[in-house]
Amino acid sequence: MNEQKWHEILSLMNERSPREILLVEDNALDARMTRDALKGCPVPHNLNIVLDGLEAMDFLHGIGKHAGAPRPDLILLDLNLPGKDGREILSEIKSDTNLRRIPVVVLSTSQANEDILKAYDLNANSYVSKPVDLDHFIKAVQSIQQFWLSTAVLPNQSQCVS
Asked: What is the pLDDT of residue 114?
């Protein structure tokens, strides 16, 4: 591919409306650190935060107080949540023909092998353990955004529905 064609593609990507990110996180500090880590993201984006599993599913289905919510391009999902935990949410997302192609990155403090295996068994797209150190946490979130918003090719809205 010649350089001019590459610049045309990058230009088209930058003209796209902002990427929608859904963060499912009940810990206010982790949500704030994630928001701060994404501030430097070169890809235009909107970060939507929900606090529990039930609210996450309402957001994804656009019901209740989340009527008209944007369809996420990426979901950052904590595992340990009140109401409905991340495993249940992941299972529901990946079994729903209208949602299953949305990439889900599990972002959890758990480093337990059984949690990692279960997440992948439920078709998580990746699993990232939340570092305790702030600088490492920021780098982890920035790595996620770099890959999922800048490097990976994501399905557009018309490709998401089977």
From this structure: 95
Place of tokens 């600088």: 135
Q: Work out the angle between the directed axes of helices 134-145 and 28-38 (0-180°, nearest 10).
A: 60
DSSP-derived letter for residue 146 is: I
Contacts of 22 (CB under 8 A, 6+ apart): 48, 49, 50, 56, 59, 60, 72, 74, 75, 76
May I ask the CATH class of domain 18-154? alpha beta
- Domain positions in the chain: 18-154
pTM: 0.86
User: What gap in Å lies between CA 1 and CA 80, rounded to an integer?
Assistant: 45
Q: What element of type H or E holds 39? A: none
Tokens matching residue 154: 């994501």
Residue ranges of the chain with per-residue pLDDT less than 70: 1-16, 156-162
